[in-house]
Specification:
Helix content is 13%, strand content 45%. By secondary structure, the protein is mostly beta strands. The chain has one domain.
Length: 100
């Protein structure tokens, strides 16, 4: 089974970010350009195992929003997402209490 890259969190001021490292194989087995995904959701999907062993989705939780892909360098790149604090604390507060 292929292991997915583990995102790592970053903090800059009051904003949090998730960074997903990408290895870009030359065979094209994964896209090298994720243009068009900006603004898409980063979802945490909670699964529940039923009595018969079948996994079902219990909840979908919005954890972040994709906003940028790092430039390619030596077969590597990264996708960057605004994190939970940024979208639920900072953005929500700015929308509810706009500055005059």
């Amino acid at each position: 089974m292929k292991r997915l890259p583990t995102p790592f969190p970053e903090m800059h001021g009051q904003h949090d970010y998730f960074v997903f490292p990408l290895s870009l194989p030359p065979d094209g087995s994964i896209p090298h350009n994720f243009g068009g995904v900006s603004g898409s959701g980063l979802w945490h999907v909670l699964l529940r195992e039923e009595k018969d062993g079948v996994l079902t989705v219990d909840k979908y939780l919005l954890q972040g929003l994709t906003y940028y892909q790092d430039p390619h360098f030596e077969g590597r790149s990264a996708l960057r997402c605004h994190g939970t604090k940024s979208i639920y604390d900072v953005a929500y507060s700015a929308l509810c209490h706009p500055k005059p």
